Amino acid sequence: MARQNVAEQFVDILVRAGVRRLYGVVGDSLNPVVDAVRRNAGIDWIHVRHEETAAFAAGAEAQITGQLTACAGSCGPGNLHLINGLYDAHRSMAPVLALASQIPSSEIGLGYFQETHPDRLFQECSHYSELISSAKQMPRLLQTAIQHAVGQSGVSVVSLPGDIAAEPAPEKAAQSALVTSRPTVRPGDAEIDRLVEMIDQAGRVTLFCGSGTAGAHAEVMRFAELVKSPVGHALRGKEWIQYDNPYDVGMSGLLGYGAAYEATHECDLLILLGTDFPYNAFLPDDVRIAQVDVRPEVLGRRSRLDLAVWGDVRETLRCLIPRVREKTDRRFLDRMLKKHADALEGVVKAYTRKVDRHIPIHPEYVAAVLDETADDDAVFTVDTGMCNVWAARYVSPNGRRRIIGSFSHGSMANALPMAIGAQFTDRRRQVISMSGDGGFAMLMGDFLTLVQYDLPVKVVLFNNSSLSMVELEMLVAGLPSYGITNVNPDFAAVARACGAYGVRVEKPKQLAGALRDAFRHKGPALVDIVTDPNALSIPPRISAEMVTGFALSASKIVLDGGVGRMLQMARSNLRNVPRP
Questions:
Q1: For the segment 526-579, what is each residue's pLDDT rounded down to a tens digit?
Q2: Any idea where the Thiamine pyrophosphate enzyme N-terminal TPP-binding domain is (predicted)?
Q3: SS3 content of the chain, % helix, strand, coil (to 5)
Q4: Hey, is 297 helix, strand or coil?
Q5: The model scores a pTM over 0.90
Q6: Which domains, and CATH codes, for the chain?
Q7: Contact, 226 vs 232, CB < 8 A?
Q8: CA distance 412 to 203
Q9: For a Cys staple, 159 with which of 72, 96, 118, 303, CB 3.0–4.6 Å?
Q10: What is the DSSP letter of 301?
């Protein structure tokens, strides 16, 4: 039996770690690895048109499956293109292994053609970034990289010169057992004791939840019932905590709605559960705050804390539930639920007037119809910008749907590449890319990847011929709109030219039928919807401090934005509020 080379050993270890796809663009220094993938039945090479897409796709797959994924780029410019998607994966805590192939090892440091130093370049967006400079480092270095990515939930980068990849692998190289999943973390007894004391002493408790509440929905609901707490959430917590939630008071932050802001500011004790909420201007500075997170490095970095608790949200709540005293006073909870419903009633009027006849089409109306038409287990990938607003306010989570976006990194053009990674995990599951025309155009070449692999992704394109979030920022600064206009083609015609299904929608009455037809189509499809560029959004609470870095405007062209089916849920929750 022929001795393995380093590339073959590299690929075998990826397969052993559960990696089933390697996203990338082929190139000379990467050829030994690509050839090893070709000869390994346990893994597929996914040829994308841009390496940035490869990293976004791998990150999305990791977020859907919770398992290690991988992407690759050839030396120099090839692997440099990975960096934006890797930043996003790292900040989203997605376990991704990136292979950055390198120039010949004998030429490193001599200004060779396409020379860069990826082991240095990727340090800021990874937990681990190292160069394999000798075949003898395999397989230990790759195993270490994998365990960093899985154990710390983020990116690891391995730089591998093409000549070393083609060398024989070390004989009798030890292959250790690989860590492929994370443990749960229980807080210490002292922290639990102190948190129980703080909860029992507080008359009004509010929970504010982030993505760290994944898998803890039942525990959060039980705990909220015990302490009669309103439950707000950040954008990344929406899919995990908003559904089946009789204590829901909406979302705080730049895209917020409802009474979450009031609930976090009018309580005696605010408990932050699994959130590294970045906008400290929306957090109170005059109430007691406890934070629970599995990542100790994020505790207290956004707000002053009275108690920092290192642990999984679910494990922490399981420790608390048997010990806290049940509260009997619902007045604070009921008042916040009423405020929430009233707030939603007010903003709904902004998009309900004659929307079925308004041309150009209100994007709020598009999002509401999309929410009603999509499958109950659909995966939504969401472009940064106004698509974030519409997804935050209209896509209704139910415990089965997923909502993925560049919510921490804030990159343009993420929705289509993320849809590729999401769809590869399950071709039978509906995957919808909520794309803006600016973001879609930026990485439009990878629409061809959908066609090449016959991936049934449905691209719902909010086409207002504008970078509208940027325009809103300009309005805030008192600047005239400049450089934000997109001269677009008929994107539906482009989709058809690529060999996919494409339809253009310019009238509201065409919308529902166009979406249903596209969703029934068995292959990739694009629905190009011409939307109103004047439909913008502002958060529910505005202060001078919040203006910095975000779009706030007093102009009459700015709408509050609707909230879709959330109003119905808020009304339903109000029925449970005791009447005097």
A1: 999 999 887 755 445 545 444 443 333 332 223 344 555 655 655 555 544 544
A2: 5-116
A3: 40, 15, 40
A4: helix
A5: yes
A6: 6-166 (3.40.50.970), 189-341 (3.40.50.1220), 355-574 (3.40.50.970)
A7: no
A8: 43
A9: 118
A10: S
